[in-house]
Amino acid sequence: MSNSNGSARDVPNRLFAAFDAGDVEAVDLLVSADLLDHNPPPGSASAVEGMKMMVVAMHDAFTNAHHDVVYQAVTDDGWVVSQWRITGTHTGPWFGVPPTGKDVSIYGIDLARVVDGRIVEIRHVEELLQLQMQLTG
Question: How many CB atoms lie within 10 A of CB 87?
Answer without folding.
Answer: 15
